[in-house]
What does this fold into?
Amino acid sequence: MTVTTTPKATVTRQERVVAINPTRTCAPIGAMLATYGVHGALTINHGSQGCATYPRHQITRHTREPCEVATTSLSENAAVYGGKENLLIALKNVYERFHPTMITVCTTCLSETIGDDIPAIIGEFQENFPEISIPIVDVNTPSYVGTHITGFDNFLEVLAKSLVRRGRKPNNKINIVPGWVNPGDIRELKAMMHEMEVAAIFLTDYSETLDGGFYSEKPHFPKGGTTLEEIEDSSNSMALFALQKHVGGKAASIYDRRYGVPSHVLPMPIGLENTDQFLSKVTEVTGKEVPESIEMDRARLLDAMVDAHMYVTDMKVALFGDPDILEGLVRFTAELGLRPRYVVTATDSKQWADDMMKLAEELDLDTEFMMKTDLHELHKRVKAEPVDFLIGHSKGKFIATDENIPLIRVGFPIEDRFGYHRKAIVGYRGAMYLVEEIVNAFLSQKTVVSNTIMDMRDLEGCTLTNGSGNGHGHEKMSEMVKEA
Amino acid sequence: MLLKCNKTIPERAKHFVVKGSCTPTPGGGCPVASNVQTTPGDMTERGCTYAGCRGVVGGPVKDVIQLTHGPIGCSFYSWGYRPHLADSDFHIKYSFTTDLEESNIVFGGEQKLLQSIIEAAEEFPEAKGVFVYNTCAPALIGDDGKDIAKIAQEKIGKPVVFFRCEGFAGVSQSLGHHVGNETIFKELVGSVEPEGDFSRSINIVGDYNIKHDIRTFEPLFEALGVRIITRFTGNVSVDEIKIMHKAALNVIHCARSATYIADMMKDKYGTPYIHVTLWGIKHMSDALRATAQFFGLEDRAEQVIEAQVAKIMPQINHYRSRLAGKKVFIYQGGPRAWHWPQLLRELGMDVIAAATTFGHEEDYDKIYENVGDGTLIFDNPNALEIEEVLTTYQPDLFISGNKERYIAYKMGTPFVNGHTYDTGPYAGFSGMVNFARDIDRAINAPVWKLVQKKARPVPGWNGNRNETSMAEAF
It folds into this structure.
């Protein structure tokens, strides 16, 4: 179904009702992941046991780290009489056995449908045990609303509303809400801020808790994570930067309205232009200039893009994943001279549709932006009109294998490769990494002698596409080959 | 027995026994509380009934549309993570869901289910049927999925099988196995009456072809002169399930997840069954012998066993010399905790602790029979218990699943994935070599010497376990 259209680009929404190979999962995992970014915090998932076990298994497969999430183990009894008793017991057990700094209670289909009043149950618990003074927050994460990023976004909203203390002591820091990214992305953002000598509070920071080290004694809670004190203090920051509109956007407006922290919701800093925009905003707010080290990274990125252009210009790419990563990747791939042909997200967002159409117009893209669409639909598109490679998470590997095209692994989950949770795609260095991945994926499919491709089809193809810039070189090229 | 980490949840004590210091039950084992509700918030490793039905029993069926009736997550998480392989990959590659949303929860999801079945069948006309798995949400709002399945079956002209496996039913995955068995039996088994001679045929019941386990033993049964009609449910087609009642004998491998269907077949068709174990040298030999005995083919069995054992013994002896004397903590879903102590003994190793996620009383009786005095036996472990057992018992090897692997690693304990295997297959005689090689790689990897010598404490931590930020666990 076509939603909007320009002369070249369209936004569509999938018509088929049955979802086949979804590129999304459900909300609780988002709240669990975000909670991992608070030091010493634990999540209790209020529902069936699978609702805790499946997501934490998924996080473990992505990060190769332990991931603990408690469950209230609801069963038939709870379905009939409510889950209050189980939640009260779970809160006590988690507190007494683990001594967390904070507990997140997130809901499920089950607890939402039976209508458990979570705030009231938490209130009763706190009345029963006044000596337990840690924050206990509740996040609505029914599986039937939104996607996995909804759970993360809802958690951040709750964080902004209930964990931040109103204050009037400027702390000379900025708040950064990275959104649903990898531990490696958070570390890259931290490194950039360090180089700029800007102090930042990350909401939240699972860069170490879900990518920890090996220590001679395993700490009870993984090292790292934003502390509750930092979160309380985040109302005193001079500005907030939300780097994903759909994960952190709601929290940003709360900081703005409630705490008077000027909030900037920016496109995810993937690629040159978006990173420029982010860093110049940081400079504007903090007065701290972009240092030479970052300028040199920026120059190296441009240099690499120049070096890469003869390999990649006009290649067609299909992208899939979460809306904000896609927004960043669309601009970046276009900067690099690629043609984003299909862009698939499971999220149904008018803002995303509008933003993508603006981007398409600005960059003159002939892209089909596919909202609320699954990977099977993408596969059918790719079969009908092939692309040169895919960019997305591991679940796209079936398309890549069937169509014999490379999959550049970006996003969540990446379970069939090693260490991708450590890779950063943000910032100039992240963009550099992506350029290298893309070019090397291309080269790995070719015969290369020294640094020259020995593939006559592509040599011909280059001649044909050079200068035309209309992006149809590949079809023409293959026709020529067939005729020959 | 009460672990230190359980001092605030004393009800966990009845889930622990030490062999040799308990009063045996009439069943011959030790009284281990099992198959009961998990203590809420104890950080259990258990999953849900849906996981047991969709993930374990139904999911391996290779040529049906695996359709989850529910919101998006259940289908996403059960998609392609368990290597229950077949000679085709449709069942691994595709996951289908009705993708229920808020409006469906309010107004019902039945129409969406019907439309989903029809669309999926149109999209994949080669599929031989549809398995529909129910989840919490549609069960709570009262969707009549079974009725919809019936309507859909008429419309698409193929079996549509509806599994009542909503996650909140039962106490663990185990009920999902039961639902899977019962539903498949009622809806499919015996629905076709094939011609032919089935007098020397068997079903392998309770093997899910993890990493092609079946390839290690199917040729051995064939060498006996016995044909496998149906593998329940590894590498199996829906047509093979329909005729499984023709087999002369059911050979049950996973007793916990699949004895149900063998019992039902025995009642309805009079099909006898035997319990076997298809991992390990002694077990595999016994399985071939028992099957051969049923058909009067004992001589052939001995020839097959002799040839196979001779083939692998040089390698087994090699690994045994490197592994002898090592101590193992094994924690599996169910029966592997009693199947594998024998395999480990064949490699010269001893089990010092054994646990299961969803075992029942019979499983704990069997563990008891298969381990030595002093072994800790416990039920439904949680994260802190696993850490405490790894710390106090100091096993040389921990055998468990993916989720527990990284706890073991952070504690410096070598680990082998017993659920989905590190390499595999592990079944049969040839699989035993893979099992031994993986254990050797885990235990004798140089990295453990490196971390013992070189690992340092957490920077900035003064080692005080009582510090709030590193709160003491037990």
